[in-house]
Structure formats: structure tokens, C-alpha cells
Amino acid sequence: MSWYRWNGEDLELSLRVQVRAPRDAFVGPDPGGEYYRVRIKAPPVDGKGNQALRRFVADAFGVAPSRVTLIGGEHARYKRLRIEAPPQLPLPVERP
């Protein structure tokens, strides 16, 4: 899978984000396997979509939102996130 990689204890995810969805959810890998699809209820206005994405991912991986960093794609639907030392893995991710 190329939509995730480990950087030491930190997990980096490549995501394709759909905003204004009916509910927040992980959908699955895109057909090419380069991104993992995520749906977020929040609109992409004034950073609300990015904040909602960080909160959703933080809750799913069992970390504080401050431990989820947007490292790429701030104004795009394709984003890269870094999760600092996640204690739980809700996605099909293998530890190194």
C-alpha cells in the first residue's frame, strides 16, 4: 500500500478528502491505491474542513488533535497527514 508510510513511530497518510459528506467516515483506498478516501461533514471554508479532518483522524487513532499535523495539501482535496505515535490503528496499516 502506498497510501501510508511509517516515519519512525509516526504514521504518515495520503488522503483524498470529500467534504460536505453526510457523515465523517473512512471509505477505503482509491482504485490506484495511492490515497485513502475519507469523507468529512464540514465544508471547505476558512479551514473548517482541515480542522474537522484532524479531529476525526485524531479520535480514530486515539491521539490528541495536536498530534495530527497537516504536512501537505492544505487547500486541496489530496492531503498528507502525520500522526504522532498512534496507539490504535483503525485502518488496515501494518506496523514496521
Automatic annotation (TrEMBL):
SUPFAM superfamilies xref list:
YggU-like
Q: Which InterPro entries match?
A: DUF167, YggU-like_sf
Pfam families this protein is in?
DUF167 (PF02594)
Which protein family is named in the record? Answer: Belongs to the UPF0235 family.
Q: Which protein, by its recorded name, is this?
A: UPF0235 protein HF203_07085
Which organism does this record belong to?
Marichromatium bheemlicum
